[in-house]
Amino acid sequence: FNSLNHDMTLAEFKFIWYMEYSHRMWGRVVGLAYILPAAYFWRRGWLSRPLKGCVLALCGLVCFQGLLGWYMVKSGLEEKPDSYDIPRVSQYRLAAHLGSALVLYSASLWTGLSLLLPQHKLPETHQLLRLRQYAHGTTALIFLTALSGAFVAGLDAGLVYNSFPKMGERWIPDDLLAFSPTLRNIFENPTTVQFDHRILGIASVTAVTALYLFSRKIPLPRRTRMAVTSLLAIACIQ
């Protein structure tokens, strides 16, 4: 307010305050939704030995996620010397916070589905092995694309170029490697960050499409085929 948003009203401040407050409260509710049932099931003796380790890891990840969120927000409150730019959190901490949330969500979903749905016993053919490896690679690519989106958000890089598929009038912008040393551009140059996110997004959609087409050549259980088809549909929507 003192350095930038002089015209902000109290009502406008309350709006952003309640957004932040709601996010924190929701995060704490999520934490309780993990820890309280876990403690109850543990006490009742309903958890197997492997599941106990999994539950401990998930509860630890929930707590870590909360600490990481605090660490991220803290970076937006630090005074930057000789800087009159818009106050914002560190894009590195934002990416870490998002990344840990995705890991927590994926691990929770994987654990839940493993308990609810019996694993299919399929013959380990060469094609099936290749499909599994390709699926894991596609997962890693999608995860990397999501993390690059956090850098776009943290740097407001989405505001730099608004055209697609070209960026302005060029396929490759002039200021793609404007920062020195060169490696800084990948994480701190808004133009490069947006360019990388575009390339990763296109690569992710291409990889998901290729995964779907490859899966059509292999006899798979109905549940697996539904999962691959749903993945393609969500990728297209995204």
TrEMBL record:
Record keyword Transmembrane helix present: yes
Cofactor(s) the protein requires to work: heme b
Superkingdom, natural source: Eukaryota
Catalytic reaction list: Fe(II)-heme o + 2 A + H2O = Fe(II)-heme a + 2 AH2
Functional pathway: Porphyrin-containing compound metabolism; heme A biosynthesis; heme A from heme O: step 1/1
UniProt KW keywords: Heme biosynthesis, Iron, Membrane, Metal-binding, Oxidoreductase, Transmembrane, Transmembrane helix
This protein's GO CC annotations: mitochondrial inner membrane
Keyword match Oxidoreductase: yes
Compartments where located: Membrane
Protein topology in the membrane: Multi-pass membrane protein
A GO MF term: heme A synthase activity
Membrane-spanning ranges: 25-42, 54-73, 93-117, 138-161, 197-215
One of the protein's GO biological processes: heme A biosynthetic process
Name by which UniProt lists this protein: COX15 protein
Organism: Dryoscopus gambensis
